Amino acid sequence: MNRRRLQMGMWNAFSEEKMERFGSDAISGIEICQYRDNESLLYTTKVCKEKGLSFGIHTPVFGGQPYRLPRITSTDREEREEALRCVEREVRTAAEYGADYILFHYPFVPIFPLETKHDYSNMPKPGERYEADQIDAALFTDISLQLFDALCELQNRYGQRIVLEHDFWGEHEKLLTMMFREHPEIGLVVDTSRLDISARAFHTIEPMRWLEDIAPYVYLVHYSNVRYEEDRFIHHLPVLPEHDEDDRFGDAYTYLAYLAQRPRSSA
Predict the structure, then answer these.
(1) How far apart are CA 129 and CA 160, in angstroms?
(2) Contact at 8 Å (CB) between 101 and 162?
């Protein structure tokens, strides 16, 4: 039987102080992002080996520049091609350092549905997202199929597990489910904060319905909560018992408990 794992984020550099402060014997891995340089990454892999920790990578591997994710579902063909070149570089690096997985966002560019239930001020702005009329179902399907085929090829070529964390998917819920169902070798990462924000912001999102359909393809859960204010939200917060009865907070625990009872991915 596969052992469930618990890991913590360790961005920018490995921190012994952070492991001491927030770690526990239950933690068996870390997720890294935006490390300073090759030396910093090499040190982290050495520490992980010594401590018996696995590690995954949330793109971008290295920092030193503004935080940008590859626009792998851009409607602009040249932009998509450049994004895939970036993806290949990141996958090659992850394979060289022995990462358990490397993570990209999908769809990216995020997509908003036709109608918004609540417009939070720190949601992606126009220019950082697509509106529903900027990418229709036929185009998004074609782009997605090309993307998943390319990712499967890269995964096989480099022997490196690739996973995709869902971003805002607009009105394309069924397509997302289909893509992971038909490409089970590409794992899904559920983000409980983004899922809850989607449900609060958009009429089209029913989290439990989606989790029921997508559960067999989930590789990893990013587990954090959200606190809502009048026109914005604070996300990536620890999930605490007192959140359960406080309407200002999201339903992260509910999502995780629901997923824990569903069939798990065999990846």
Answers:
(1) 29
(2) yes
Q: What is the pLDDT of residue 265?
A: 52
Report pTM. Answer: 0.94
Quote the Cα angle for 24-187-227, to 5°: 55
What are the pLDDT digits (tens) for 84-106? 999 999 999 999 999 999 999 99
Tokens representing residue 128 in the block: 């950082």
Give CA–CA dist 213/230, Å, rounded: 32
**DSSP tag of 146:** H
Over residues 131-171, the pLDDT tens digits come to 999 999 999 999 999 999 999 999 999 999 999 999 999 99
Helix (H) or strand (E) holding 28: strand 27-32
> What's the Cα-to-Cα distance from 193 to each of 19, 65, 231, rounded to whole Å?
23, 25, 16
Answer left, alpha or beta for residue 103, where phi above 0 means left and psi between -120 and 50 means alpha: beta
Are 47 and 70 in contact, with CB atoms under 8 Å apart?
no
